[in-house]
Model the fold of this input.
Amino acid sequence: MTINNLVQGGLYVALLIVLAWPLGSFMARLYEGKRTILDPVLGPFERLLYRVAGVKPEVEMNWTAYAGALLVFNLLGFLAVYSLQRLQHLLPLNPMGLGPVSPDSSFNTAVSFATNTNWQGYGGETTMSYLTQMLALTVQNFVSAAAGMAVLVALIRGLARRQVETIGSFWVDMVRSTLYVLLPLSLVLAVFLVSQGVVQTFRPSQTVTLLEPARDADGKAVTEQTIAVGPAASQVAIKQLGTNGGGFFNANSAHPLENPTALSNLAELVSILLIPAALCFTFGRMVRDERQGVSILLAMTVTLVGFYGFTASAEQAGNPMFAAIGADIGYGADHPGGNMEGKEARFGIAQSALWATATTAASNGSVNAMHDSFTPLGGLGPMVLMQLGEVVFGGVGSGLYGMLVFAIVTVFIAGLMVGRTPEYLGKKIEAFEIKMASIALLAPSGMVLAGTAISVVTTGGVAGIFNPGAHGFSEVLYNLSSASNNNGSAFGGMSTNTPFYNLLLGLCMLVGRYWIAIPVLALAGSLARKKAVASGPGTFPTHTPLFVALLLAMVVLVGALTFLPALALGPIVEHLMMTAAA
Amino acid sequence: MKDHLRPAFILLVLLSALTGLLYPLAVTAIAQTLFPREASGSLVMRDGKARGSRLIGQSFSEPRYFWGRLSATGPVPYNAAASTGSNLGPMNKALRDAALARIEALRAADPGNKAPVPVDLVTASGSGLDPHISVAAALYQAPRVARLRAMSVKAVEAMIGRHTTGRGLGVFGEPVVNVLELNLALDAGGGSER
Done:
């Protein structure tokens, strides 16, 4: 860990919190139906949408109706993304003349984008037409993120309200998230990204004459370079802000036309965690106790900083093999050192490790460096962050609702210790709540472990592995963790664009999204019906350092108990082998 | 469920039009007005011909040019139509082989230079298109390029300085040298050829 890594990480976290606070207050006003500064511009348009769609914005839903609306909306979205891929060769805005996407890949991608995972089995510039990128993928980037925010807001209402059946209108929450939060922020970010050099054009690929001819695999001289371009900036902006992560280009935000400078990197990096962090403040506002939001944010931030330190140290220490063959892996003011395989020179170790941490803490999944080429421990950090259930910031909405599930389990465990009925924010936590919370916690972990086990004992699963030895096992474990927790980043060497993985990972993504979102909505409904109990001397306060520590311990304990054996077979054994070989 | 179909369908269509068509079109219009060069790929023109993009690296192996990062794209290195990293794990033999081959090539082109090679010069970038190398990696190659172009090392180092970008806001990222721009400048008469 160098001073350079510390300073870059510290400034990033400070900037994030400073920007998240005002956004959090804005969103609290928005979801409580109060007037916001954007009302004069967007209000009439919002009301028009409702009128055409036949939505009465003042009519609220109970939890089953809310869940039904979410499912129907996502199913239609899934069908749209699937169809657009299958038919893209017949549709306009396909200047490169790309053919239809295969059925299994289309299924995987449609699930992936509708569930806000944005796992990519395909390479963007060689697979998707501009129309597919825009009308299928960009649209889901917005609305799947908005759906996650809606479910969170419903849960917060469940905690804040007393003895009512309804938890809000899915349509209103989803539309408002899109119109007032995601769209304006994306517009600003996209224009800034273009100023840095991210492309935004409808022209086909550009061809240039190389300075020095290159040789292809057969030794033939190649004198030209074809540079894929496209309407990238508009998609990159929302894929960062909506914790989507699906890149326009195959190399995602490592690609210089998707993330060209240190400043574009900073802007994209802040965007990964901006809304998840801001929602903590929104939560505090809406439950009328800002300390509650701050304590959750604190738990998340402490975890983020710890994992950043761990990953940055591992990557800065680098791979001893390089030093042994005569390379300089030490840090210098003009030289990043460390493990630079799969990393861009302009980002170096600090910005790559910071991104890897943020993108897996959030369920973003975009990358600016190739995680498959990280050192064993450098790759372990991001892998564990996903396995913790994407609750350290997590996806927009989904991260905080996941963390609130952990908060409920934490007060339950604390209640068991003193033999008292637990309560959270004045709501009694009873058998039904704990059942729903347990389903939400266990389902994704089950998919990770079962999916990994199936993959490593079947031909279809083993066939995809790229790197030999323990690292190959890490690839499977990482990718199953990513899909099941709706992250979307990959150990990218593994060939996953096969029917086997397209279907298995598609299934994981579905479980990872809905086996949490639906129990959470059930929780919201059940909590909303309860009356509030006054806090007494036996109440466990949930805004204290003690609670933050206990919550953290719970998250880490559940993750460690579940995954330590599997991690020992992959990154841990590889680390021991790597250091022993040196 | 049936009550949900109509609002779900209509909202999906309207929001698709808004976020999938209007939004990217609006960004394109703004981008092409304010930043036309950047929005189109930051192409570098010489004598009316596009010789590359400022942001996309090219493959260099002639000793009189500065060399960039290794590139794992196929079928040629720096294939900007199909970006990718090597995805080689740290224990993979292919990773060692590629790094060793690069070190040997560097040493063969510059026999007197026994200094350790900056690690970014022996590793593949994440995109396979990295336009940059570290300042140390450029300085390491300066004596070789100077010798082959009959320039003083000082003059080459001054050119490296002119094509170096510092950290963002003085803090973020790493200082880097743009390899293509540096090589273009060398060809344009930074020094006579031999």
Q: What stands out?
A: Chain A touches chain B through 137 residues (CB under 8 Å). The first strand of chain A starts at residue 206 and ends at 215.
